[in-house]
Design a protein that fits this description.
Radius of gyration of chain B: 23 Å
Strand content of chain B: 15-25%
Order of helices and strands of chain A: EEHEEEEHEEHEHEEHEHEEEHEHH
Low-confidence stretches of chain A: none
Shape of chain A: globular
Oligomer: heterodimer
Largest sheet of chain B: 5 strands, parallel
Structural class of chain B: alpha/beta
Structural class of chain A: alpha/beta
Chain lengths: 296, 478
């Protein structure tokens, strides 16, 4: 089973996990994804690739705690194992020399733009990276993206770091001063939609990477259906990258909400478990015995 | 004193006890409960021990049926099990899901004057007896040949091929994309027809034969067929990746919440165990009025599963009439007993959603049967102006699967048909690539467990001869 080598809290409720999956890392390309199961009874959750260390065989995932499975992953200490990490899945991002290529990452979407920026750079592009979050404490990967790009632009909703506003605010500025030839945007749906709306007006080719609910990730279940240009596509095998100007974002939002009550229920149960377990750990510590080392 | 043929013919076909429909429609326990030893011996005594038996020719995995039945009649269940497993590594599975009425039992001489011998039920009895006894001793395994074979996909074709090749002394690795081995046996067929511990036991038997199984390993992504042969040192490959790409009708509203492919619906329930939420994490919203579209075994599985999940109304919508339904008679019968509503000669034209994007109704059109089509069945034709709407809160689309294109797309030189299935030589199962073989649904399109197992068996034979230098492995005549 894949072993977690490192677990670092990058931002509140956002952890960077490095997992040992050498052959997967050797084969994976920028833009592909993996499916993770935390434990034997776990659901199968698609996760973006937030870095590939081919020398050490380590896959990086940046995980934001939004429900039970992501909380379990964030609680997985270095040295513990995950039930499965399967991949690489999906088609890699189409990388070529576009000229001035721009990668835009919002929130947790900052992680997957990093390997894409690296690949674009290697293909000879001049790369601008735009990253944004609600506030300064939620930003990460400044150094990584700083070194993988020619220019790094930072935005926060509250102005606590960089430009005050959204990533689209920075992108608007960039379009006016140094027009991109190609854009990739990854982040929450409202952010990808606003980037798409902006770049459509300027006719700049724009790609978004979608992360709908899926089970197998190999085209078998069809749960990840998205409408692109009026046609149904499977994000797991036809994507995850699609033409941003053709994606039906409303449908994506609607389909993502399918299991909301269950997600809430499972998360609340897990939070209760975590609270009890933390107490247990504290008591153990007081008695200098360490039978359990994590709450997962 | 052996029975005379006349005496044998007088014994009635033994009934298989079943859970009562009103009980089983609400649980996932197996519907059919199996024979006890006395009943099995009585059923076996019905076999006429024909000098020229016809039944074996009806069995895609070539079980010596008269021999195992004679052993059951004599109470020698251990050797009966041995006989089954000599030919078939998956007897507890095949005894449950094979359409015996169209195969071995259809050829049974007794059937000419009455009802055929219950071959499938006896196969199931013997396999279950063996498992409960803790398994019989392993069959003789040939000395190691030093050859490595990769099997892509752990469904019935792959597992059968793997077992036969292992017995012949080859080193076999099965690659499975999902986290549990079994393919359609675990994600597709519900537990009430095929309990999952039975699949597990038969997979464990293959492991005892020396088969290695790697789960969560997607061939075509992690490694290509060429990687398997060039980098990882496999001497031959068998592709048994099945028909796993769901078909939709391409009508308005299909992407509403609550509209599922049968694959997704069944996978959520069977593989991911959503009915045990929150002990298992994968959810599935409850539904009271479920419409399942299609007329095959998968549609039957989906509609009967819906009842077990608590549907008040489980409806089957089929565009032709009862006579054209491809599902097994037994499944149709079971579904009717359990209270499934059948609606024939109807076809959805669109799904209607509520303000939150959940399906709330299906608009259908009535159909009538016209001239026969390519399948020989009369083609359903819409009746203009006959549209009507029924309220539903879940739709499951079970109108068939196409082949998954991943392997074909990532294997240069692998010839495919217009339908996207892999082309093979009909007798050897060799593809256009030397050393690469394929069988099961990836070759035929959606068919049955036993036809896939039969293909796996015959492919194993030709892979063995290829590895021993008997053929060059590229025998596909295109």
């Amino acid at each position: 089973m894949p072993k977690v080598i490192e677990n670092i809290e990058l931002a509140p409720r956002a952890h960077r996990l490095r997992v040992e999956v050498p052959r997967l890392v050797q084969k994976a390309l920028a833009g592909q994804f993996v499916i993770v199961r935390a434990d034997e009874n776990g659901e199968r959750v698609p996760m973006s690739i937030g870095g590939l260390d081919r020398e050490r065989g380590l896959l990086t995932m940046v995980i934001q705690e939004v429900g039970k499975t992501s909380a379990q992953l964030c609680d997985t200490p270095a040295g513990a194992e995950l039930a499965d990490v399967v991949g690489p899945l999906g088609e890699p991002t189409e990388i070529k020399n576009f000229g001035h290529a721009v990668v835009v990452g919002g929130g947790i979407g900052i992680a997957p733009i990093y390997p894409v920026a690296q690949a674009l750079r290697a293909a000879g592009n001049r790369v601008t990276a735009i990253i944004g979050a609600r506030n300064k404490s939620l930003l990460f990967y400044r150094e990584e993206l700083g070194s993988a790009s020619d220019r790094l632009m930072v935005t926060t909703d509250d102005g606590s770091e960089g430009l005050k506003g959204f990533v689209s605010t920075a992108l608007q500025q960039l379009i006016e001063t140094d027009k991109p030839d190609w854009i990739m945007a990854i982040g929450p749906v409202p952010m990808m939609r606003s980037v798409a709306n902006l770049t459509r007006q300027h006719a700049i080719p724009t790609v978004v990477s979608l992360n709908p609910i899926m089970i197998d990730g190999t085209g078998m279940c069809g749960g990840c259906r998205v409408s692109v240009g009026g046609h149904t596509r499977f994000a797991c095998v036809d994507g995850p990258d699609f033409d941003a100007h053709q994606v039906d974002f409303d449908e994506l939002v609607q389909r993502q909400a399918q299991y909301k009550p269950f997600e809430k229920d499972a998360y609340e149960r897990y939070l209760e478990h975590r609270e009890e377990c933390s107490l247990e750990l504290a008591i153990q510590k007081a008695h200098h015995s360490e039978k359990t080392t994590s709450c997962r | 004193m052996p029975l005379t043929p006349k005496e044998r013919m007088k014994i009635p076909r033994q009934a298989m006890p079943e859970q009562l429909p009103e009980n089983r429609a609400h649980n996932f326990e197996e519907v059919a409960l199996g024979f006890d030893a006395v009943t099995a011996m009585r059923e076996a005594a019905r076999c006429l021990e024909c000098r020229q038996p016809k039944c074996i020719a009806g069995c895609p995995v070539e079980i010596d049926i008269p021999k195992f039945i004679a052993l059951v009649a004599a109470g020698d269940f251990r050797n009966a099990a041995r006989t089954l497993k000599d030919a078939n590594s998956l007897p507890a599975i095949c005894g449950r899901v094979c359409p015996q009425e169209a195969q071995c039992e259809n050829n049974c001489v007794v059937a000419k004057r009455g009802e055929s011998v219950g071959i499938g039920r006896l196969e199931r009895f013997v396999a279950d007896w063996e498992r409960e006894e803790g398994g019989v001793e392993l069959p003789p395994i040939a000395p190691p040949t030093g050859k490595k074979v990769a099997i892509v996909g752990s469904g019935p074709a792959g597992l059968t091929c793997a077992g036969d090749l292992a017995k012949l002394g080859h080193q076999v690795t099965v690659f499975e994309a999902l986290h549990d081995p079994g393919g359609v046996l675990v994600y597709g067929i519900p537990a009430f027809r095929l309990p999952k511990d039975i699949v597990k036991a038969e997979v464990d038997y293959l492991r005892k034969l020396g088969v290695e199984i790697k789960t969560s390993y997607v061939i075509g992504r992690m490694d290509s067929i060429d990687d398997l042969m060039n980098e990882l040192g496999y001497d031959a490959v068998f592709i048994g990746t099945g028909a796993g790409l769901p078909t939709f009708q391409d009508i308005p509203g299909e992407n509403l919440n609550g509209v599922f492919s049968a694959n997704e619906f069944l996978t959520r329930v069977n593989l991911m165990k959503s009915y045990l939420f929150p002990d298992y994490d994968t959810p599935l919203a409850s539904a009271k009025r479920v419409a399942v579209l299609g007329g095959g075994n998968t549609a039957m599985d989906a509609v009967r599963t819906s009842l077990r999940l608590g549907a008040e109304k489980a409806m089957l919508l089929y565009r032709r009439s009862r006579d054209e339904m491809p599902a097994r008679q037994e499944e149709i019968h079971h579904a009717e007993e359990e209270g499934v509503e059948f609606h024939f000669l109807v076809n959805p034209v669109r799904y209607i959603g509520d303000e939150k994007g959940w399906v709330k109704a299906v608009e259908m059109i009535r159909m009538e049967l016209g001239e026969p089509d390519a399948s020989g069945r009369r083609r359903p034709v819409p009746v203009p102006g006959s549209e009507f709407t029924i309220p539903v809160d879940r739709v499951v689309v079970a109108i068939g699967n196409k082949s998954n294109p991943l392997i074909q797309k990532t294997t240069p030189g692998l010839e495919t048909t217009k339908r996207g299935t892999i082309k093979v030589d009909e007798t050897t199962f060799a593809t256009s690539r030397p050393g690469v073989y394929a069988g099961g649904d990836i070759v035929t399109g959606g068919a049955t467990v036993i036809l896939a197992a039969g293909a796996g068996k015959r492919a194993a034979r030709s892979i063995d001869s290829y590895l021993k230098g008997g053929s060059n492995g590229s025998e596909l005549k295109i």
